[in-house]
Amino acid sequence: MTTTTSRAIRLGPALRPTEKVLPEHARAHNRSLVLAHLFHSGPTSRADIARSTGLTRVTVSDLVAELIGENLVAELGVRAGGGRVGKPATLVGMQTEAFHIVAVDLTDDAALTGAVMTLASDVVARRTAALDGRTGDEAVAVLEGLCRDLLAAATQPVIGIGIGSPGVIDADGVVLEAPNRGWFGVPLAARLQAALGVPVHVANDANVQALGEYTYGGAGGSLMVVTIGQGVGAGIVLDGALVRGRHDAAGEIGHVTVVDERDVLLGEPAPLPCVCGRAGCLETVLSVPALRRRVAGLSPEDSDAQLASVGRKLGLALAPVVSALNLAEVVLSGPRELVGGALREAALSTVRSRTMPVIGRDLEMRTASIGEDRALSGAAVLVLSGQLGVT
Amino acid sequence: MTTTTSRAIRLGPALRPTEKVLPEHARAHNRSLVLAHLFHSGPTSRADIARSTGLTRVTVSDLVAELIGENLVAELGVRAGGGRVGKPATLVGMQTEAFHIVAVDLTDDAALTGAVMTLASDVVARRTAALDGRTGDEAVAVLEGLCRDLLAAATQPVIGIGIGSPGVIDADGVVLEAPNRGWFGVPLAARLQAALGVPVHVANDANVQALGEYTYGGAGGSLMVVTIGQGVGAGIVLDGALVRGRHDAAGEIGHVTVVDERDVLLGEPAPLPCVCGRAGCLETVLSVPALRRRVAGLSPEDSDAQLASVGRKLGLALAPVVSALNLAEVVLSGPRELVGGALREAALSTVRSRTMPVIGRDLEMRTASIGEDRALSGAAVLVLSGQLGVT
DNA sequence: TTTGTTAGTAGAGCGTCCTTACAAATTCGT
DNA sequence: ACGAATTTGTAAGGACGCTCTACTAACAAA
Q1: What is the pLDDT of residue A239?
Q2: Is B20–A10 a contact, with Cβ atoms under 8 angstroms apart?
């Protein structure tokens, strides 16, 4: 493995709003602006970048030269297709193949999955590691081993490692609590970074997915991802920024009560006990195990009716959130055969019927199947964002 | 290298995260940092500011000199109370009396209320203007007249006008829709600014109150204000930033359904028709008129029971929002005799019983009575934030 | 060939902050 | 009492970043 780069890449505007801003921060910001433009718009000319960012051509040339010097950007020859007056533009584009990112998804209780990806989130190699019930420091060791595997599998310099993990995780990558992994107050990012010598970024798995959807999903800057797996979680991006919440516990929507005694009085199923110690939580009806139990052995019609019933519960919980935040989009992330059909439709129509037309009308609700590379792409975005400032 | 996730740089007023950053923006940001420190911490020395902001003493001296030149800051003599080694510090403090802010609250359907305030939000003069049912351009004219009155009443230079208005309002102060005032797509801020020659900032009244609570309420950076008046609205501040939502309609929580047919089946009151055309909205039970009707002529005990019943409805709607955002604080803004007692307690206990302990335990729910100067203070914060970058 | 337009670069200039150095004023140690 | 240490605030010089102006290069249209 070569070193990541000769110079430490640290463009990410990792600045708290109450921190001072120096000229070099401004430059880093503008550099990220240029890179983000190339990332999203593909190869363009320096002049195009200047028009798009508002910077002068001179400054853009300077920034692009810097980026070329670090091999993040390359000249791609002269733009074809004449017909335009003036000197033809020299195209410059991001070198998405010149660096690699290591992305790891810890969502699954049984096995850690990871991949080596290009800067465009194309998978170059995959590795997995079985947890075999290990928790605490042993689980960290398994994770570190997987990361070493992946680093060894990378054929280009690795700019960083992105990890999506269940649990409550703060902005510095400290896992405050992840009961399923036995992690409480584990400075995961710092430990792995010290051990591996590569920048490491860790965030909640649902938050990571929300970042991925924000970057690759195409919708506006206000979205919520509901992850439906062993448990139920959520990640929220508002105005382009991840919501963290007071104690970094934003998105913990799995344990909102959606079934109570009133349901019993109306002849519906009673609230089920939840791992959190209470009963009737969203997770007791919406988690994948709960859904599978509910539809096991039923005919398609009955199954759909059951899924729709769960969808209505979800809609009940989502309606106030969608209203209060004026969300543009809710993404359901889970097995498509469970969440893609009647469940999604019932949830959407419930939200629409329980909110103002102006709120519900424009709301999109779509599915993103877990198990594909959405989670890994999100982890890659974590690195892109943290190391290069690209979102 | 630390591993924080990306966070948008906020360089003072009117800078979107995707815009270029020039050295002068950096300076404006640092200037605001100095001013904000003086605003929140009171008079201190230049060296203290340097330690607190991370800037050097040299730079702080320069910035302070600039602020003194604009009369926003003044030297206040040498710090008393010895006991500390070294040269005694010269205190500098914000000149809160040297400028005035005009704040206007349009929440009330009958009359506009406004005040001239110092930079510390102390009221210097008050004025009101009756609407007498006027809407549209005539209502704008009444508002403009009130602003002129207030400008004339100011005895110091006015740095700006802050207006909190019902309705959906975008970041540029365009009232997209305010049915009660008959405003649809009215560029209120721009029109008043052109007519009055003073910077004008307009925002939704609930959002304005949320800003005020964020600045003066003392709690953390994640709070929600629920305004309970003619209608029901909400404003949300997350990580120190106002949530706007996809179409600037964030906070429109008044028209979430909280009463439906199920309640009828359980022998509870049927959903009431709502002005929005649907039925059972939160506003149909929580608005001040609805509350007054509900408790009219009842004994204190019966009244409390009714208020608690409404509080539970509110709690039902708030629980998912509090969970999803990990809010630190919910502020109920309305007549204290209605929302301060049983209603608040029922809402809080409902939220607690329907969310994870870690979410509900630390949640604060308090009241802020409308009709006092909270709304006006919020409008003043709008100006402080917009003109001076102080929040 | 001339004119006009667009792309990209060079040099000078201005703004911003930092580092280093220094003067002033006070307390502490002996 | 008196120097040493400490703290505050300022001044000079330098590094960095962006812009403005001016220039060359390359093309289309007249």
Answers
A1: 84
A2: no
